[in-house]
Amino acid sequence: MNMSQSAAPSLSACRAMLAKDGVCVLPRVLDAETTAALRRSLTETAELYRQKGGETFLPYLDPNDRNIRVFNLIGLHPDFRKLILHPTAVSLVEDLLGDGFMISNFTANIALPGSASMALHADQALVAPAPWLEPWAINIIWCLDDANEANGATRYIPGSHLWQSLDDLPDDPMALTRAFEAPAGSIVAMDGRTWHTSGANVTKDKERALLFGYYTQDFIRPQVNWNVLLAPETIAALPADLFNKLGLGPSANSRQGGALLKAMKDRQLQP
Ligand SMILES: O=C(O)CCC(=O)C(=O)O
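That is the input. Now the predicted structure with 2-oxoglutaric acid docked in place:
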């Protein structure tokens, strides 16, 4: 029997870890063939992104050009339109956010040998001001290569998803970070409040390709404007569930209001 598979934590163990540490690893959600095919799709997409004039090095994000950033995965490749609503990913997202989530972004970061860490941050803090009292965001990170400390796996601070404002950060938060370790094909789920950064890739020849599916509560504006980013023909061909979760339908920030008005109506009907 394959030891790593028998030791693999189940989805329920992953949920427990996510609640405790703010991060959990679910190993080998994708088989080797699917993972390799997605890795090829990512290489093609990075090339296409460049051909269309996209910048894969953003100096405000990364300290040097050894990180290849690929944005608009959803607009550029059908594989990623499928992956963003993978049932296991959606199950983890719904556990944390409920079913009123939307897709805020889907991007890739390929850390090449020599890449260095970006600034420490929490993704929920990128889209909503403090206090961060509840999970309003989650990242589902797809590992398309084996990820480990040496090749720059994401470094995170266990338990930092419970920090509510910048005042809760200690003096040297980087000293508290640890790298996750996950084989290619794994999901790493990260509560949006967890403080983290990319690791430095100190290997000579190992790439680290990760995809970041970013999901938020639907009352938070997505990181990108899908109406503008996606080509009209791409939007026209989207399946209904993806169309809705990208917020492309006619109604937008109305779910909270609907629930509130219903609750008030129910209250008034009580004697
Ligand atoms: O690449 C990584 O490990 C982390 C990337 C990240 O946190 C970001 O781009 O916001």
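Strands lie at 23-26, 67-70, 101-111, 121-122, 137-143, 155-156, 178-179, 187-191, 195-197, 208-217.
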